[in-house]
Structures are given as C-alpha cells and as structure tokens.
Design a protein that fits this description.
heterodimer, A: mainly beta, 7-stranded mixed sheet, 4-stranded antiparallel sheet, 11 strands, 50% strand, B: mainly beta, 6-stranded mixed sheet, 5-stranded antiparallel sheet, 56% strand, globular
C-alpha cells in the first residue's frame, strides 16, 4: 500500500546543478501537486496537474519545471539549482470529487550549496 | 488573494487541552482542513469541516468554524506527548483542487 512515493529523501546540490525529484502515486488520482515547505511559511504550491498531459503553475513556479506524461508520475525538475531552493519538497495527490483528502509523500530535503 | 494565518508555536502540559487557531481570507472556501505533520514525515489529514457547519467532533478533536469571522480552531482534549507535531490548517474551494495552507503551528506537549 505505497500511496505517494518520493525519491530521493535527501539531496545536496551545488549551485547551478540540475536534478529531478521523483513522485509516483498508485491510487489512480487525477490531481497531483508539488509544494515546498520553508520555516514560518507553510506549504507553498509550486506546480500542479489536473491529469496526464496537463500542468499549471502555482504560487512559486520560477526555477522549476514539471511534466505529467502518465497518471502515476509527476517529476519536478530544478533546471539550475540556487541556494534559495534549499527547502523540503512535498508531492501530493488527490482524487477528484467535492471533498478530497490530499495524500502526501514523505518529502525530499534538498540543500543547495 | 487567499491567505491563511496561524500562530507559529503553542506549548501545553500533558493532559491539558490544546487550542490551535487559524484565520483565512477566502470567503468562497468550501472545505477547511486540519493536517498533522510529525517530524521527518509528510502531512496527514486529521479532520475537515464543510463550510456550512459550525462544529465537528471526532473523538479528542473538536473543530469550530466561525464563518462570519473566517476563524477556524482545532481543540485537542487530553493532549498527549504523541500529539507534539506541526498542525496545518488548509482551505479549498469547491470545483478546484488547490489547497491553500496556513503557516503551521508547532505544538509542543510538556510531560
């Protein structure tokens, strides 16, 4: 019963490097999203997808790209990492419907030096 | 735009009640949620309330909603050390899937 799986759990990058944070869900949820969590700022929405082939920007999209080629996977790409992207990243998925619980992955702690 | 505010810290003694407060600005909010985040983990849903309700009780948890003042609270009765965590309130509007989260309240339970 995996739910939402994020990899890696921890990552250290040098400024300017690129990388992809992986997110996979096995609940056949249509909606997936990426958040970053910073102290005192709660969770801020980076990008989201309402279904395969459809993505849109959230509150803080700059410096990040996403794609949704399948229902299950929603990777987040950092094109050229910056120290300001040091954060904990969470992927979430939701089923469609009126009231829907968000299921979260365990998070990826990213440090950019 | 939408905004959800919470106080950052709360400290209570084991066995006491905890009350975590949240204010929001979006009057079209349909569902309001409380999520719990334990150290090193993702968020898990604790409870939710529909915007046409004033109160919801679920075992030790009581949610109060004052829609006029856009104020939401979570009361935890008989708080235990296992309740130490960060608590987030969040809101969504019917027809969208975008959660707006509060800043989170770190609850520390003292033995």
């Amino acid at each position: 019963n995996a739910g939402v799986t994020q990899t890696p759990k921890f990552q250290v990058l040098k400024t300017g490097q690129s990388m992809t944070l992986q997110c996979a869900q096995d609940m056949n949820h249509e909606y997936m999203s990426w958040y970053r969590q910073d102290p005192g700022m709660g969770l801020r929405l980076i990008h989201y997808s309402v279904g395969a082939g459809i993505t849109d920007q959230g509150e803080v999209p700059n410096g990040y790209n996403v794609s949704r080629s399948t229902t299950e996977d929603f990777p987040l790409r950092l094109l050229s990492a910056a120290p300001s992207q040091t954060s904990v990243y969470f992927c979430a998925s939701l089923a469609s419907g009126m009231n829907t619980e968000a299921f979260f992955g365990q998070g990826t702690r990213l440090t950019v030096v | 735009g939408e905004d959800v505010e919470q106080s950052l810290f709360l400290s209570v003694r084991e066995g006491d009640s905890s009350v975590i407060n949240c204010t929001y600005t979006d009057s079209s909010s349909t569902y309001l949620y409380w999520y719990k985040q334990e150290p090193g983990a993702g968020l898990q849903l604790l409870t939710y309330i529909f915007s046409n309700m004033d109160m919801k009780q679920d075992q030790r948890l009581t949610v109060l909603l004052n829609k006029k003042d856009k104020h939401l609270s979570l009361r935890i009765a008989d708080t235990q050390t296992g309740d130490s965590a960060i608590y987030f309130c969040a809101e969504t509007t019917s027809g969208t899937y975008k959660y707006i989260f509060g800043t989170g309240t770190r609850l520390k339970v003292l033995a």
